[in-house]
Amino acid sequence: MPVIPVSPTRQRLPHWFKRSLPANAESSATDAVVRKHGLTTVCEEASCPNRQECWSKRAATFMLMGEACTRTCTFCDVAYVKTPPPLDASEPERTAAAVAELGLRFAVVTSVNRDDLPDGGAAHIAATVTAIRARCPGTLIEILTPDFCGNWQALQVAVAAKPDVYNHNLETIGRLYPTVRPQARYRRSLELLKRVKEQDAAMLTKSGIMVGLGETDDEVRQIMLDLREVGCDIMTIGQYLRPSLQHHDIIRFVPPEIFAQYEAWGRELGFRYVAAGPYVRSSYFAEEVMQGAVALPR
To answer: Phi, psi (5° rounding) for residue 107?
Structure first.
């Protein structure tokens, strides 16, 4: 069993992380809509540092299929459960209703891993895309899905729902998977992104990683090369922040100039868009990221 790097104290954040984002009326309104429709957001469950900023713009990332995950990734603050409750068949419609009430032009929908389900929840994700399309036909949709344990028929169901962006995060370099993502497989995640393109070449594909878990910059460049090899269009790179003292340690804080180097590498390697920075997360400014990607000739 690999040893998870854990230190007994929290590291002090470097100066470039200092910012104050108090709650305001708009973020409170977003919170009220989420509560009204009984929804879960990754903003809350994963303790995202950008929650107030995004919610003040009436943007939230909806997390389907419960508040607990069947995997034990050591970076993530989402709770683990061996046997989650059954899916709620009303969730797709409730999510669509919230998207409509918030007036979202761009909706991001993710989910926990549901390895207990034969299709990993692919049909539930597809039903949510369909429900949003029916209620909000002008809204663009990004889905961020699990790997479905390599069930490629399940993947076909999710792709056939026709999201505008298909996102699946690698999270970190392959060498660190045994300690960071023990139930995932690096090559399986790359294969998923490759198969999305094979099924729908016009669909934008996206993936994200965190830095600060023990990778080197050379390894970051290699993961970028691996993503380009499977046709990935968009990449996000952000600083890992430790949710608690029980989670994986922060091995390094990457300075802004190195994030700028990552973006330069991305342009050089042919990504349609790379968003890299200390506070960047997979769905952070997702609409603007997509706009940046589609602005380039295909």
So the answer is: -110, 135
The class level of CATH for 22-294 reads: alpha beta
Is the pLDDT score of 237 beyond 90? yes
Give the Å distances, CA to CA, from 20 to 50, 52, 273, 280.
11, 10, 28, 16
Residue 283: helix, strand or coil by DSSP?
coil
- Percent pLDDT > 90 in the chain is 67
**Which letter, b or e, does each residue of 79-108 get, where b requires 16 or more Cβ atoms within 10 Å of its Cβ?**
eeeeebeebeeebbbbbbbbbebbebebbb
What does the domain layout of the chain look like in residue ranges? Answer: 22-294
d(CA 158, CA 204): 14
pTM over 0.85: yes
CB 4 within 8 A of CB 236: no
Structure tokens given for 170: 């690698």
Instruction: Please name the helix (run of DSSP H) or strand (run of DSSP E) that holds residue 255, with its range, or none.
Output: none
pLDDT tens per residue, range 138-166: 999 999 999 999 999 999 999 999 999 99
